[in-house]
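Dissemination and training. As part of the outreach component of the grant, students in the summer workshop were shown how a complex can be specified as a set of sequence lines and then modelled as a single object. The example used during the hands-on session is reproduced here so that future cohorts can follow it. Participants entered these lines:
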Amino acid sequence: MSDTDRPAPQAGPQGDLGGTGRYTGQCCTVRDLAKTYRSPSRGLGRGRSRDAAAAGAERGATGEVRANDGIDLDVRCGEIFGLLGPNGAGKSTLVRQLTGLLRPDRGSVHILGHDIVRHPERAARLLAYLGQESTALDELTVALAAETTGRLRGLTPARARGETADVLAELGLEPIAHRPLAKLSGGQRRLACFAAALVGERPLLVLDEPTTGMDPVARRAVWSAVDRRRAERGTTVLLVTHNVIEAETVLDRVAVVDRGRVIACDTPGGLKALVDGDVRLDLVWRTEAPTDVPAVARIAEQAERSGRRWTVRTSPEQARELVTAVTTGPAFAALDDFTLATPSLEDAYLKLGGRGGGLAK
Amino acid sequence: MTLLDRPAAVTETAAPLAPAARLLPALAAVYRAQLARARVARIPLLFVATFQSLGILVMMRGVVDAGENSAARAVVAGSSVLVVAFVALNLLAQYFGKLRATGGLDHYATLPVPPAAVVLGAAGAYASFTVPGALVTAAVGAVMFSLPLANLWVLLAVVPLAGAALSGLGAACGLLAPRQEIATLLGQLGMSAALLLGVLPVDHLPQAVRWLRDLLPSTYGVEAFARTFGPGPDWAAVAGDLAVCAAVGLASLTLATWAYRRATTR
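and obtained this result:
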């Protein structure tokens, strides 16, 4: 799917749930959000260790764990907005604050005009959340998991059943509707949880790594369902991901999160423009790199190495020289494979100062 | 619940809120889902619970004489209520402990559902799941110890009320325990206490242990049921024992609901 496949964000019917009011502001506004876990031992007592570990963020000399610090965000209605960062960057902590699950130490969160820090219980009536865990639904069948979730979103039994049937058909889950989630593969289980998130419509969908473990067919089902809701109802989507390809193809805008801070926020194209002009050269050696070749020796310092793979980010001119050098003579004999590519979001992320290695390609 | 149902004070610029789920429909939905879940995952454990109680009956038959005596009554009533303790206290403590430790509570916490609906729905499902096992144990025990079968119907009051008390305690243990292993430990300890203090004939216990026994809510379920085996049962005393179960149930389920709220809002 490319950006051009999807309809442009609409500013129309979002948030209109049949009530009298029509909301026209931002979907989600976050200002100066901060959370620090003060005492890990006390945190353990209330399950905070999980959040702290998930946040994995800065641990100060006093034992403080800073999960996030001074986060500002604006998510417009009708857009697919992403939080991109490696595992442990603090994305999930931020999402837990947005969904009212975790109270921040400081700062404000407004969703569709409601103050979620003061009224965390309202979040459940404004958004649907797909977390990373499925323990609450694991022993239910796919159909019952979706239907029960719909009923707990306030639907009548008949409406919950009807919407469940529609969503299962839409996502192609009908053949496994009567199997318990625990007996499904990881990707199927994830898709079933996504189905549960869609029953009982909400103007905002918060999806924490929704496509983890899914095959391409299931992924396509997820993005089609998201697109359909956005086109028909102006649904806003807040997506957490550490998958660069997904971020580039699906998102309208992306906030890059690292060590509990937003280090950049722009369209994927805008972020990639930061590294415009550079290219990425991946070299894979058969065994050892031929460092006796002068051109290879020159880039040895600069290259990011991962086993037999070297990655060099450089200007197109230098890349051309390098390609010439490694595709002739002894270097070519030692070369297994190489690729020359235009920059990706990951390159932009690294340029912005993010830690390498955590993003999935 | 009423708090959630009331239309929230919404500023002019805010989008309308979707309606919250009401207590009874949400409770029914949780109950139904938990019962279905139990059918998938808990049937083997229910057999374990029942066989454990039947095993205890056989074992105690070697020690206690059959016929109208207080020891026989205590063994049969204690074994029957033990099924309830196993499932409602032990398994529910483990379930909520696991849900809390793995983040599964987030699913419920991000749905507009009253905390009481989640706790009561789960507790009710676990308690109702013990009815067949408790009935089988009581019937087999009554035959084995030559006790009258006429008043077994009283289990239909004992199981829900003792179930409420024990599942409330189980849910509270699971939701309050700082770690999943501690929730499991508390559930196991509670069940062991119900086993040792409920099944053994009370006349043989030392005074200190009797006091401990009086503190355990399952004791009152056992007492109520044991009384009905005698000739001309004292129904007022039965009702009194059941009232204690009901009161403990109310208190422990309230505690569990508070613990749920505490676990989901941090």
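Confidence is low (pLDDT under 50) at residues 1-20, 41-57 of chain A. Students were then asked to discuss how this feature might be tested experimentally.
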